[in-house]
Structure to design on (208 residues):
């Protein structure tokens, strides 16, 4: 009985799909001059009230520091934001020391992307992926995103999102650009369509 119960729980964890969005935040010590960085991965989840559906990390989850070092991410606790809208968040913080200067892409990947995403193929079985690039060739703090990506759109009304990015040192200019989402490093999701694609807009118009 114990073995059967354990397998059922493990199966639920493995196939839970709940990750909506996320950010990678990077901080450099020594006023932005250190080769050691603090990395915080924040994900926003769909919390249905079932504790097995809001696990962050675990099997298949890892952070890649872009210099050949990969760190597994164990299961992290979930924190409820809004029960009525099933919104929660979880985070993982670690540190890493680079052995030299250069540009490095820090990424996070795990299997549990949210299902039902219209403008890509089979989101439920497409890995969730985040990345950010840092430059350690000179002293500089990476930008910070202050606004969580958990907006809700309304049918027939324009939707806007400003991530609230700012430069901690107040010297760098910032700009935004829409890109095709990735499912792994250098690998975009399958059959991505722009949000203003006519087929996507038609599917949205038919949703209640």
């Amino acid at each position: 009985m114990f073995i059967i119960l354990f397998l059922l729980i493990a199966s639920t964890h493995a196939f839970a799909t709940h990750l909506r969005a996320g950010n990678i935040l990077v901080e450099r010590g020594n006023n932005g001059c250190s080769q050691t960085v603090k990395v915080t991965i924040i994900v926003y989840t769909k919390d249905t009230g079932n504790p097995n559906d809001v696990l962050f990390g675990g099997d298949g989850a890892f952070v890649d520091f872009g210099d050949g070092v990969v760190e597994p991410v164990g299961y992290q606790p979930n924190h409820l934001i809004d029960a009525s809208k099933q919104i929660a968040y979880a985070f993982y913080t670690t540190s890493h020391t680079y052995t030299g200067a250069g540009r490095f892409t820090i990424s996070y990947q795990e299997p549990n992307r949210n299902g039902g995403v219209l403008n890509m193929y089979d989101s439920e079985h497409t890995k969730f992926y985040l990345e950010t690039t840092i430059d350690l060739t000179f002293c500089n703090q990476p930008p910070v995103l202050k606004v969580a990506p958990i907006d809700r759109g309304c049918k027939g009304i324009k939707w806007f999102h400003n991530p609230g990015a700012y430069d901690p040192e107040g010297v760098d200019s910032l700009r935004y650009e829409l890109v095709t989402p990735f499912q792994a490093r250098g690998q975009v999701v399958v059959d991505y369509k722009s949000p203003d694609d006519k087929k996507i807009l038609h599917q949205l118009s038919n949703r209640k």
